[in-house]
Amino acid sequence: MSNKEVSFCYSSPGRFIAIRSQQKDTFPDGSYTFSYDTDNGISVAESGRPQATSQGQSEVVQGRFSYSAPDGTPITVEYTADENGFHPQGAHLPTPPPIPEAIRRALAANPPGLDDSDYRQPYNSNPYRRY
């Protein structure tokens, strides 16, 4: 489809949204790109390519999408996806709070000990019986 052609997609309260532009390319090596923009402000772009890994073949993808939230806030997400998972980035995405300084000091003061994987608890086949 060329950029000059207009097509429509269905939006859930029963109205149609025009697709302003749409592009899609696939290549013999398995890589691809696509993008589209709609009349209601949605914009999407993605590219991907196959990649050989130690466990076989996987896909490496980079992309972004943007739209306006119901309250009018612009939302933009940029992402990568590969054998290690989906990694989104966006100003609106929650982030974990910083570790409080008292806990950071307590963790630093802990003496090095056994790795948790070396800890073995005796097996109790009867959960009602205590040793």
Automatic annotation (TrEMBL):
- A Pfam family that this protein carries is Chitin_bind_4
User: Which segments show compositional bias classed as Polar residues?
Assistant: 50-60, 122-131
Q: What is this protein called?
A: Endocuticle structural glycoprotein SgAbd-1
Q: Which InterPro entries match?
A: CHIT_BIND_RR_consensus (IPR031311), Cuticle_Struct_Prot (IPR050468), Insect_cuticle (IPR000618)
Q: Name one GO cellular component term.
A: chitin-based extracellular matrix
Which PROSITE patterns would you find in this protein's record? CHIT_BIND_RR_1 (PS00233), CHIT_BIND_RR_2 (PS51155)
Question: Is Nucleotide-binding set as a keyword in this record?
Answer: no
**Keywords in alphabetical order:** Cuticle
Supply the source organism for this entry.
Answer: Dufourea novaeangliae
Q: Which stretches of sequence are listed as region Disordered?
A: 47-74, 109-131
Picking any one GO molecular function of the record gives: structural constituent of chitin-based larval cuticle
